[in-house]
Here is the input.
Amino acid sequence: MENTKVLYISQEITPYLKETEMSVIGRYLPQGIQERGKEIRTFMPKFGCINERRNQLHEVIRLSGMNLIINDTDHPLIIKVASIQSARMQVYFIDNEDYFHRKHVDKDEHGEEFSDNDERLIFFARGVLETVKKLRWAPDIVHCLGWMTGLVPLYLKKAYNDDPLFANSKVIYSVYNKEFKKPFESSFRKKLWMEGISNEDVELLKPPSFLNLSKLAVTMSDAVIMGSKTINRELGQFITSSKKPLLEFQTEEEYMDAYSQFYDTILSKTLHDPK
Here is the structure.
């Protein structure tokens, strides 16, 4: 469809992080979709291992400066941006000294998952949506890739659903076989709260494990994409039982056109069956 706007919220994008199944999709999918006539915006966390000088990141002052309150503590939201010249696309980075200045992504040097990954996930999701509001850019599709984007569908459907920018946005969640192992603390449900979110909405987060966070993301999304060929078996069964529109795993040769057509299908369904 012409004039379609697609917001990409990615856990990993190469060349800023090492090449993985997820980071390669995060890099080349937005470019390919843009080349097919759609308008795109792309976001990822500004992990401390990303070299700002080498990748020519710079702060966007007009978008920075907001404080996000998580667990009764103010956390400044810093927005940085870099350009991938060969793709004619920009990548926006969500940054914060407390959450993203350590030199690893989600585990320390001993392989232990960071104890505040729950708050980092909350900050990233809310930071992206608040920044998009400042950009005054209304996405038709919000495509979330990876577990660190797992709260975006909830926030869009419950906390930001009355915002005109997101009122007609369709959320697509890509599921990968990259999991976190240690469940978040039970306080996660309290920390993520925003006006519009009820206890019933987060009932699935008992406990707040990778599986349950993924189930919540699927429940709150309009459609699902299998980003990996094999995923958690129970999660796969949950997706099937959800009856959500589903795009099965696509090979490197197929995924670009398949994703673009899937977007069009979801939007076309909306036009003929508005909510």
